[in-house]
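Long-time lurker. I teach an intro course on protein structure, and each term I like to show students one example going from raw sequence to a predicted 3D structure in token notation. This year I'd like something fresh instead of my usual example. Would anyone be willing to generate the tokens for the chain below so I can use it in lecture? Attribution to the forum is fine with me.
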Amino acid sequence: MLPIAQGIPGVTVTISNVTVPADFAGQTPYVGEFQINFTVPPQFASMPAGNYPLSITVNGVSSPATINTSPLGPLVLPVTP
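-- Reply from a regular --
Happy to contribute to a lecture. Here you go:
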């Protein structure tokens, strides 16, 4: 039987300049796997399609602006209204 996922408080998600609280953030029952659930704010339905910068913050500490790709690239959320 798998253990129940443990939640982490104080997690927010920022898309462009809009910040929302995470619906759930925590470790899954699988070792080394973390999950963050969030709802894309409704104003994105009327925004132009594109890649919007994405940042995760845990208790005031933000994720890096780039991800380890080759070449390094920004962490983005593709939005198609």
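Some talking points for your students: The radius of gyration is 14 Å. The mean pLDDT is 85.
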